[in-house]
Design goal:
alpha+beta, Pseudouridine synthase, four-stranded antiparallel beta sheet, 7 helices
């Protein structure tokens, strides 16, 4: 048997069921999978197999063992097309294409942005340089992404994110029209208890992490709207979950219900029009438009901007023409 995960329970941990405890610590873990692992004897506490209803205690050592060895998530060079906006000895700024996973993980062990960057560094005589993430954007979100080449620079940039001094703006096509031209969404975010792949808002602040999104209406097309979002915090799926929370899911965002016809008429011609837009833009209509930060070594203010990709501009153009024809 091979050990895949190992945790030592904190001294202050309350007595929580082990399946619930592990769901909070293993990305993409589901309660059903953990219960099946416990049933198979794959969850050990202090080297003894336990059932899924075991309650963890302070200082318990938890191991998850499986018959196959863990997958290799090391970063090795792979040639992947990259659009580089800026590069120096300390950082590199990428205009990431939609569909490219940023880092290795479950189901995506190769072909990620980090593999492509490792190839780029090696090709330019810097084989020992490793790409270090400062922040992330989702696989099907496009746009500006900042990568560090050095742990010291990474830590300085991470502090800027922590202090909310980095300015990040996104553009999104969302369902519905807005009565106000701008607004702010405040709501703690945590994983949805019924769907661990989704984040959900806990407005009372009882669960999750504090999250703030500011938005501004750029253009209205009647049934959908083009907006700009500025992040004050940077939580997983923040814009996607916040927009769903206020009733404006991102267009064609399957994870958050935006891949359904949520606004408009029941006419078959309209339904076909929306379906055509889905085919033109086969992903969530979200783009990391710009990023402004202080260079961690030179202390110079840097600003980078990315044009909307063709799939988004094409879908927006179709909606703009449609709305003008309805006037």
């Amino acid at each position: 048997m091979f050990e895949h995960f190992r945790f030592q329970v904190d001294k202050g941990q309350s007595m929580l069921r082990i399946d619930k405890y592990l769901m909070l610590r293993i990305e993409n873990a589901t309660r059903n999978k953990l219960q099946q692992a416990a049933k198979a004897g794959n969850i050990l506490v202090n080297n003894l197999a336990v059932k899924s209803n075991y309650r963890v205690k302070p200082n318990d050592v938890i191991s998850i063992v499986l018959a196959e060895p863990p997958r290799d998530t090391s970063i090795f060079p792979q040639e992947i097309p990259l659009k580089i906006l800026y590069e120096d000895d300390d950082i590199i700024v990428i205009d990431k294409q939609a569909g490219l996973v940023v880092h290795p993980g479950h189901g995506n062990y190769t072909g990620t942005l980090l593999h492509g960057l490792k190839f780029h560094f090696k090709s330019n005589g810097h084989e020992e340089t490793n790409p270090l993430l400062v922040h992330r954007i989702d696989k099907d979100t496009s746009g500006v992404l900042l990568i560090s080449k050095d742990e010291t620079m990474q830590a300085r940039l991470a502090k800027q994110f922590f202090d909310h001094t980095i300015e990040r703006k996104y553009q999104a096509l969302v369902w519905g029209s807005f009565s106000e031209s701008e607004g702010t969404i405040v709501g703690h975010l945590a994983r949805n208890p019924r769907d661990r792949m989704q984040m959900t808002v806990f407005p009372d602040g009882s669960t999750g992490k504090h999250a703030i999104t500011h938005y501004r209406l750029l253009e209205s097309f009647g049934y959908v709207s083009l907006i700009e979002c500025q992040l004050e915090t940077g939580r997983t799926h923040q814009i996607r979950a916040h927009m769903k929370y206020i009733g404006h899911p991102i267009f064609n965002d399957a994870r958050y219900g935006g891949d359904q016809i949520l606004k408009g008429t029941t006419f078959s011609k309209y339904k076909q029009f929306v379906q055509n837009c889905f085919e033109i833009l086969p992903r969530q209509a979200l783009h990391a438009k710009s990023l402004q930060f202080i260079h961690p070594r030179t202390e110079e203010t840097l600003f980078f901007e990315s044009d909307l990709p063709e799939d988004m501009t094409s879908a927006i153009a179709k909606w703009r023409a449609y709305s003008q024809n309805q006037i």
